[in-house]
C-alpha cells in the first residue's frame, strides 16, 4: 500500500494525511465487504460448502483424536510413574528386629521417599489372602517368604529408580531388589511412537486440508477468472484480488474446524461409557480427556489457518500465471 | 505524456509485432491509432497499459520508464489510465452502477463519494436511468457507454480505447467519439485505436498509422 509510483502526479490537493487515513478506512471497508460477500457465496451453495467443510473436518478429526488419546495416556503415565515402587527382599536369616533396623537404614538412604516394612508373617498373610490357599500354606512348617521393604523413590524417573535399586541391593541384609519398570518403559515408548505418528498424521492430513481448500478455491478462481482479469486491468492489487478468496478459505476452515470439534465431542461421548467400563475392569479410573477451551481454540484456529493458507496458494498460483511478459 | 523510444516487441522470439516505434504524445492531446487488424494497434496499447513489456526500447509515461515499475507498483500505475475495450469487459453479474463503481471500489473510495462520482459518470454518458440494470439488458452501444463511464469515473489523466466503435453503427460511433472529445476538452490525454477511417477523417485529430508493426505515417490534424 505504501509503495506508490510517482507517475503521473495525482490531481487535486488533498493532504497526505487524509489520503492515507481514508485509504485505511477504504481498506477496512473492503475487508468487511469481502468477508460478508465470501460468506454469502458459501451460503448460496450450501451443499458444496458443507461437503468441503466435512472433508476438512474428517481430515482433522483423526490426528486430533490420536493427539487427545495420547494426552490421556500421558496423564495415565504420570500417575503410574508416581506409583512406581521398589521392593527390597531381605535375606532369610534376618529376624524382625534386624528387619526394622534395615528398614530405618533404607529410609535414611538418599533418594528414598517412603518405606513400608512387610514382615515375613505379614507377607504370608497377604499371600494366603490373595491366593485363597490358607490351608495348603498353613501346612508348611516354615514360612518360605522373606521379609521385604516397599520403597517409594523420591525421583520416579526410570534411570534414577534403576540406580537406586543398584545402591539398595548393595546394602547389608538386602538380598534382592525387584523393580518392574519394564512395562512403564514400554508404555513410554508406545506413547512416543504414538506422538510421532500423530505428528506425521497431523502433517499429512494438514496437507490434505490444504489440498481440499486449494482445489475448492481453484475452482472458485476459475469461475471468477473474467472478474479477476477485469479488476487487474483497472488497477486492482494482488491483495485486492486475493482478499475474497482468502476469506472463503478462512470460512471453509472455520466451518471444518467447528465440524471437527463437533465430531470429536460426539465421538468422546459415544466412547466414554465403554472406556470407563474397561478401565473399571482393570480397577483403574480412566476417562477420555476432553478438548477443553485451549484445545478447541487450537483445533479451530489451525483449521482456519490451513483454509486461509490453501486459498492463498491457489490464488497466488493463478496470479503468477497472469504476469506480463 | 507518452513517449515511445525505439520500441520493439517480439512474440516467441520470432514474430515481430512492433518494430522501432518512436513517437511522442503530448499531455492533453487526442490521437488516433489506425491500421489494419494485425498492424499492432492492440499490442501498442497493451504496452502502454503494461500488460506486456517491450522487447527493446523504452516507453515513458509522464516521464517515467514504465518498464522499470516494480510489479507491486503496476496496479497503482494502471489506476492513472482509463481503458475502454472493444468488448466492453463488463461484469455480467453486477449492475451497471456497480460496474462503473469498480475502479473506485478498488481504490477504496468512500461509498457516498463513490456513488456521487458513479452517477456523474453515468449522467455524462446518458445512462443514469439504467444504473440498476444488468449489462445483458443493455444494447451494444449502451454497454460501450458503460465501459466509457467506468474508464473515466476516477478521472484518469490518460484514456486509452481499443476499437471502441468496433461493433456500432455510424451514428452511435459518432456519439461515442463525441464523448471522447468531451473528455479530451477537459484535459484528458486520449489515445484511440480504430480502423474506422471515414470517422477518423471527419474528426480531424492527429493520426498515427501502423502497418506491420511499423509507424508509416504521423499526420497532424488538418
List keywords for this structure.
heterodimer; A: 325 residues; alpha+beta; four-stranded antiparallel sheet; 10 helices; 4 strands; elongated; disordered N terminus; B: 222 residues; alpha/beta; six-stranded mixed sheet; 7 helices; 10 strands
Describe the structure in your own words:
The complex is a heterodimer of chains A (325) and B (222). With 325 residues, chain A is α+β, with helices and mostly antiparallel strands. In chain A, helix 2 runs antiparallel to helix 7 and helix 7 runs antiparallel to helix 9. Chain A is elongated and about 105 Å long. Chain B has 222 residues and is of the alpha/beta class. Chain B has seven helices and ten strands. A six-stranded mixed sheet of chain B has the order 6-7-8-3-9-10, with helices on both faces. Chain B has a four-stranded antiparallel sheet with strand order 2-1-4-5, with helices on one face. In chain B, strand 4 and strand 5 form a beta hairpin. The longest helix of chain B is centred in the last third of the chain and has 16 residues. Chain B is globular and about 45 Å long. The relative contact order of chain B is 0.20. The chains are: A alpha+beta (325), B alpha/beta (222).
Amino acid at each position: 500500500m505504501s509503495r506508490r509510483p510517482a507517475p503521473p502526479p495525482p490531481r487535486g490537493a488533498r493532504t497526505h494525511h487524509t489520503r492515507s487515513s481514508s485509504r485505511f478506512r477504504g481498506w477496512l471497508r473492503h475487508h468487511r465487504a469481502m468477508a460478508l460477500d465470501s460468506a454469502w457465496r458459501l451460503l448460496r451453495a450450501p451443499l458444496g460448502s458443507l461437503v468441503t467443510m466435512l472433508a476438512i473436518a474428517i481430515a482433522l478429526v483423526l490426528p486430533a483424536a490420536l493427539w487427545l488419546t495420547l494426552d490421556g495416556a500421558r496423564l495415565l503415565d504420570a500417575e503410574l510413574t508416581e506409583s512406581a515402587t521398589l521392593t527390597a527382599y531381605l535375606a532369610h536369616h534376618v529376624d524382625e528386629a534386624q528387619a526394622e533396623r534395615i528398614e530405618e537404614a533404607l529410609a535414611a538412604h538418599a533418594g528414598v521417599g517412603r518405606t513400608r516394612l512387610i514382615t515375613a508373617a505379614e507377607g504370608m498373610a497377604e499371600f494366603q489372602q490373595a491366593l485363597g490357599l490358607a490351608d495348603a500354606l498353613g501346612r508348611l512348617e516354615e514360612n518360605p517368604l522373606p521379609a521385604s521393604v516397599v520403597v517409594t523413590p523420591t525421583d520416579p524417573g526410570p534411570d534414577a529408580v534403576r540406580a537406586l535399586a543398584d545402591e539398595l541391593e548393595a546394602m547389608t541384609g538386602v538380598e534382592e531388589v525387584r523393580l518392574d519398570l519394564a512395562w512403564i518403559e514400554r508404555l513410554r515408548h508406545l506413547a512416543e511412537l504414538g506422538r510421532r505418528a500423530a505428528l506425521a498424521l497431523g502433517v499429512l492430513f494438514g496437507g490434505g486440508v490444504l489440498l481440499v481448500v486449494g482445489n475448492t478455491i481453484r475452482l472458485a478462481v476459475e469461475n471468477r477468472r473474467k472478474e479477476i482479469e477485469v479488476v487487474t486491468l483497472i488497477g486492482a492489487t494482488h491483495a485486492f484480488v486475493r482478499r475474497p478468496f482468502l476469506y472463503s478459505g478462512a470460512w471453509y476452515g472455520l466451518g471444518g474446524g467447528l465440524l471437527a470439534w463437533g465430531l470429536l465431542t460426539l465421538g468422546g461421548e459415544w466412547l466414554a461409557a465403554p472406556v470407563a467400563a474397561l478401565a473399571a475392569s482393570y480397577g483403574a479410573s480412566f476417562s477420555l480427556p476432553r478438548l477443553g477451551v485451549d484445545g478447541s481454540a487450537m483445533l479451530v484456529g489451525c483449521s482456519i489457518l490451513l483454509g486461509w493458507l490453501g486459498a492463498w496458494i491457489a490464488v497466488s498460483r493463478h496470479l503468477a500465471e497472469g504476469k506480463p511478459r | 505524456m507518452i513517449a515511445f523510444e525505439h520500441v520493439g516487441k517480439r512474440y516467441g522470439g520470432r514474430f515481430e509485432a512492433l518494430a522501432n516505434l518512436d513517437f511522442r504524445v503530448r499531455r492533453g492531446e487526442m490521437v488516433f491509432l489506425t491500421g489494419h487488424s494485425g498492424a499492432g494497434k492492440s499490442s501498442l496499447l497493451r504496452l502502454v497499459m503494461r500488460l506486456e513489456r517491450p522487447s527493446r526500447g523504452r516507453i515513458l509515461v509522464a516521464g517515467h520508464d514504465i518498464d522499470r515499475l516494480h510489479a507491486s507498483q503496476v496496479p497503482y500505475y494502471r489506476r492513472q489510465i482509463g481503458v475502454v475495450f472493444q468488448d466492453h469487459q463488463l461484469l455480467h453479474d453486477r449492475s451497471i452502477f456497480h460496474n462503473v463503481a469498480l475502479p473506485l471500489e478498488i481504490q477504496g473510495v468512500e461509498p457516498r463519494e463513490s456513488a456521487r462520482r458513479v452517477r456523474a459518470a453515468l449522467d455524462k454518458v446518458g445512462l443514469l436511468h439504467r444504473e440498476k440494470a444488468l449489462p445483458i439488458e443493455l444494447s451494444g452501444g449502451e454497454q460501450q457507454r458503460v465501459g466509457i463511464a467506468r474508464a473515466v469515473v476516477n478521472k484518469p489523466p490518460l484514456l486509452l480505447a481499443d476499437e471502441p466503435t468496433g461493433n456500432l453503427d455510424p451514428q452511435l460511433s459518432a456519439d461515442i467519439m463525441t464523448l471522447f472529445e468531451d473528455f479530451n476538452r477537459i484535459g484528458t490525454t486520449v489515445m484511440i485505436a480504430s480502423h474506422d477511417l471515414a470517422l477518423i477523417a471527419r474528426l480531424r485529430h492527429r493520426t498515427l498509422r501502423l502497418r506491420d508493426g511499423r509507424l508509416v505515417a504521423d499526420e497532424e490534424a488538418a
